Fold this protein.
Amino acid sequence: MFILVRAPFLPILAALVSMLAVYGRVSFWALPLFALFVALGVVLSSFCESRKRQWRVTALVLSFTLIFALWIIFSLNKSETDTLPPFIDTAGTVTDVRAWGRMYAISIMTREGGFVLKEPFASMTDGARVRLKGIPIPFKGEQPKSDFREDRFWRARGMRANLKPTELTVIQASDEILNIHDYRWRLYRLISIYTPRLTGAYLNATWTGKRDEQLNASHRRWGTSHLLAISGFHVGIVMSALSYFVGHNKKRVPILSLALWFYVILAGASASALRAALMIQVALIGRLFGRLSSLINSVCVAAVLLLLWSPFQFWDIGWRLSVLAAMTVAAVMERSKRGDPSWLIWLILNPLIWIATFAQVTKTFEFTPLAGVLINFAALPFFAFALPFASALSVLCMLGFPFADLASRALEGAFVLWGYLADFVTYALPWQIEWSEWGAYACAAVFLAVVCRSIFIPWLNTVILASFGALAAFALFG
């Protein structure tokens, strides 16, 4: 009953994730039954016969599980049986340009769907309107000796196929329709022109979602790559600043909601940003109707909505790490509501996030730096101050305020100093932890135990659930 009262969407999320984990390994139409079995098992793990009306809630949870499972299966089947036209002749908008090995991948959204062009140069920019003719080519599926699947990666981003162009024309600026992607490119140029290099790289990662490759490599070495990916950290900073200026009038929720989604879409609408935005939106709607939602349940609702929007999000590393980290933060925050001291929350949060994401990070990137645990203690408060301060200074620089340029150069020095300190800690703690079965099992068990205790499942039930839940994760994810 603890789960049904505090996080009714938790069994739904567990069921959908388990179903997608065995996708392709079991019969296609057995998947909804498997999802129902998992959801029922999670619900019964904290069932109390003395509670009234819990069977009604259980029936509702199972009904939603079945409906969502069928929708996801329908979406996956529709995508995999999609018949590509032999030739396309249409117009579209460039939505993203990213490095792709030695090439550049240019995403173009058209009336016929999204297509990806592989070019040796970044010949177009976000927001550009193009006229294209070409031959659609299916994405590569499962490859030998590789866990990466190009089809799932691009379909999670709304793309339909690769495109071999026979004719490609950029429409002149006079014919161009302003769009959010164009605003993103204009903002990227303004930041690059008016701010020092390092400050500009951080601001572009925060406001446009475009990462500098050299800076990205440094943060990966430090174990702080999450600071460059738009996530709940960045969305929370933006919404906190806006909340201060908006106040508590009747228009607060609509204004914050519009600003929230404008920022997330402007920054590229990554899986982690969308998850954070959905969580905040659920909280805003709850406050509008005078109901406070459980943080754990809010994370589950956001994760389920993303899977319904695009089931391929499940195979995206960003979605997985985002949900794991958000569940950990929500679990710790739920416990803090019960009177735990703030210094203890701050002390245990970073190590718990590291533990929760250990298996996924080490399996994907082969290792995780031990120094990252220590660096993150200082990273979060430093960047929580530096990023808003840098954003305000950049606006003043663009407007030509006196001494703003001098202040931005001083902040550039702070970012440089931060890099030196992070390098020193990495040099002092050079050890890297690789993936291991026992380490992954222990971390999975700790993560499940933290989630169980956050919704006040008794200790005995928690130990059983964490132990067998970690084993189930090994079985499901292979």
